[in-house]
Write a structure and sequence with these properties.
The chain contains seven helices and eleven strands. With about 230 residues, it is an alpha/beta fold. Strands 3-2-1-4-5-6-10-8-11 form a nine-stranded mixed sheet, sandwiched between helices. A two-stranded parallel sheet has the order 7-9.
Length: about 230
């Protein structure tokens, strides 16, 4: 069992993932930025840690992560303000990766989105561009680290009941996937050796999650990277 830190533990997906991780026997620490979010984390059986990652430097985040074995990044600015999107989804995520590497964290799971990467097709004049670019830069940085990383790229999230089944592959179009199934993917991927160094783009589908993770995913032939940082 692992000692896991979940960044963005008050998010909808993380709130579903926390109890799955706890039930699996892990020591789980959920990081939230507001005092009124602590109770929700503790109600899942996880330990709550109050910290605003957006405003922590790399050294501060390293202090937060020291002694833990795995990090799950499920945080996000939530869209809207582009400056916060750059600050959280790109800059804070990258500082967290660097901090994790500096204190010997062994595992890093990034929750990204379907279509992210250096060739994402979101035009610069789109309101979605800051998010698409920020996540793509963060994913690319993670792939260049020495962390045992996995990048999860779920399609459009729904509140449908989880099915326990997904479809993984770069040969499919973006569809949708329930938040409950994304939570289950997180909980299984973080402890799966075959998931290390892999990127998973997925929808809801017909293959049981464990089987899909074992058989699917892809290793980028060259670590992903994108152009100059923007924003």
């Amino acid at each position: 069992m692992a000692d896991i830190v979940v960044i963005g533990a008050h998010g909808k997906v993380a709130q579903l993932a926390l109890p799955l991780l706890v039930q699996a026997g892990h020591q789980v620490h959920g990081v939230v930025r507001k005092p009124d979010q602590v109770r929700a984390v503790e109600d899942t059986g996880a330990h709550a840690t109050l910290a605003d990652i957006e405003h922590h430097d790399t050294r501060g985040i390293a202090t937060l992560l020291r002694g833990h074995k795995a990090v799950i990044w499920s945080a996000g600015a939530g869209g809207g303000d582009p400056s916060r999107t750059w600050a959280v989804d790109r800059d804070a995520a990258i500082r967290t990766m660097d901090a994790a590497a500096s204190v010997g964290v062994q595992r890093f799971v990034m929750v990204s989105y379907f279509g992210a990467g250096p060739e994402h097709d979101v035009p610069p004049d789109s309101s979605f561009f800051p998010y698409a670019q920020a996540k793509s830069v963060a994913d690319g940085h993670l792939a260049l680290t020495n962390l045992a990383w996995t990048i999860l790229r779920p399609s459009r999230l729904t509140d449908d009941a989880p099915t326990g089944k997904i479809s993984v592959g770069t040969d499919q179009s973006a569809g949708s996937v329930s938040r409950g199934d994304v939570a289950a993917v997180i909980a299984q991927a973080v402890v799966l050796p075959r998931a290390v160094g892999k990127i998973y783009e997925f929808n809801n589908g017909e293959v049981p999650i464990a089987e899909a993770l074992e058989q699917g995913g892809w290793h980028p032939p060259v670590p992903e990277a994108v152009g100059p940082l923007e924003g």
